[in-house]
Design goal:
With 385 residues, the chain is α/β, with parallel strands linked by helices. The chain folds into two domains: 187 residues, 3-Layer(aba) Sandwich (Rossmann fold); 136 residues, 3-Layer(aba) Sandwich (Rossmann fold). The chain is 39% helix and 16% strand. It has 14 helices and 13 strands. A seven-stranded mixed beta sheet has the order 2-1-3-4-5-11-13, sandwiched between helices. Strands 7-6-8-9-10-12 form a six-stranded mixed beta sheet, sandwiched between helices. Helix 9 links the parallel strand 9 and strand 10. Helix 7 crosses helix 8. It is elongated and about 65 Å long.
């Protein structure tokens, strides 16, 4: 029977973004005893499912544990996806939601590790506070799957440079077909979110390589629809000919409203969003000026943790890195949104189809026997995706 040790409601996305202050660690944590060799820098080779494994653990249960820093939409989606995979593959699943603080993440991780797991999942919030917890799991032979964090055996991360380059390239292709030399491009950047800065740099470099100069490169004051509306409204005062706007999730619904308020709703307007929210996906489906979304599909990626747990417990090889082919998945128009929503509505069918490879890419090889030789000690950014 699957249980949640603790679920705390009410934390907002803004609360999640504010995490990172000093955290008091649980006194029950043990100092790491194993010596680990760090995974290599740079790109990994593609995952080889036929690579030999090795010995299997004898003292780890067929159970996945997950600790989510707060009970907000993204983490609820991830939790549901892992749970669905566990149910489909006959693995127990136990998860916990913190209250938006690093202390609560560590506390809930302690509870889960004491119960025993074969795979531990988490999404980095405070690396310094969480490291002892992750080291403890590694010492126990657990397969630690962490999003954008370390130490772990299996890092789940997006290639920010590839994602930014792809968002820009999709826009450039549209510009060449529809605007030619008349593009006036603004980019709403991620300067307030440091780990996304490589995405910004790639957007700028890709436009520059195409000979297209950005007329504006702005940071919204807030990562909200209101922030997007205010920023684009101001940009339109300075650049009334603005006809192309690219930006990140949360802000682009407001950016669309600003363009529409200015009467810019024609076939000569292009907008795109990285990691669209459901509201932004709805706008893409309407076939209006928000023409493309570039998604990081957590649902199939997290669903697949269940069969990977089975492989780890059987001593088989598993990937060291999990990411999205091409950096992200391009969703365009009503047809693209409908296909994406159909795919993620049945994750088991998606996992067993060729379309799974559109959303999830595996890189490198490790196993229970090889776990001490390839532990992630840095953020992994696969360039060749």
């Amino acid at each position: 029977m699957k249980r949640n040790p603790t679920q705390t409601q009410g934390s907002s996305r803004r609360d999640v973004l504010k995490m990172g202050g000093a955290a008091a660690l649980s006194s029950t944590f043990l100092s790491p005893s194993a010596l680990f060799a760090e995974a290599p820098m740079g790109d990994l080779m593609p995952f080889d499912p036929s690579a030999p494994g090795g010995m299997a653990p004898t003292d780890l249960p067929a159970r996945i544990g997950a600790v989510h820093s707060a009970s907000v939409g993204l983490f609820q989606t991830i939790d549901a996806s892992i749970r669905k995979g566990a149910e489909d593959f006959g693995i127990e699943y136990v998860s916990a939601f913190g209250d938006g603080t690093a202390e609560s993440v560590v506390e809930q991780g302690d509870i889960i590790l004491n119960r025993g797991v074969g795979l531990m999942y988490g999404f980095v919030t405070n690396p310094e506070a969480e490291e002892p917890m992750l080291r403890r799991a590694l010492d126990a032979g657990v397969n630690v799957a962490y999003v954008a964090g370390f130490p772990c055996t299996m890092q789940m991360n997006g290639s920010q440079a590839a994602a930014g380059s792809r968002q820009a390239q999709v826009a450039i292709e549209w510009i060449k077909e529809n605007l030619g030399d008349d593009a006036k491009v603004a980019y709403l950047n991620n300067a307030k979110t440091p780990f996304l800065v490589p995405r910004d740099e790639a957007v700028r470099a890709t436009f520059a390589a195409a000979g297209i100069e950005l007329v504006a490169d702005e940071t919204p004051q807030e990562a909200t629809a209101e922030g997007g509306f205010t920023t684009v409204s101001t940009l339109l005062q300075r650049n009334p000919g603005l006809n192309v706007v690219l930006g990140p999730f949360n802000v682009m619904a407001g950016a669309v409203s600003a363009m529409e308020a200015a009467g810019k709703t024609g076939d000569d307007i292009y907008m795109s969003v990285g990691n669209p929210t459901e509201a932004e996906m709805d706008l893409i489906a309407e076939g209006g000026i928000l023409r493309a979304g570039l998604v990081f599909p957590f649902e199939p990626m997290c669903y697949a943790l269940a069969p990977l747990t089975q492989d780890w417990l059987a001593g088989k090889t598993v990937p060291m890195g999990i990411t999205v082919p091409g950096g992200n998945v391009v969703i365009e128009g009503a047809e693209g949104v409908a296909q994406y929503r159909e795919d993620i509505s049945d994750l088991n069918a998606l996992y067993n189809s060729d379309r799974f490879g559109i959303y999830v890419g595996y890189w490198g090889n490790t196993s229970y026997e090889e776990r001490t030789k390839n532990v992630w000690g840095h953020s992994w950014q696969q360039e060749n995706v």
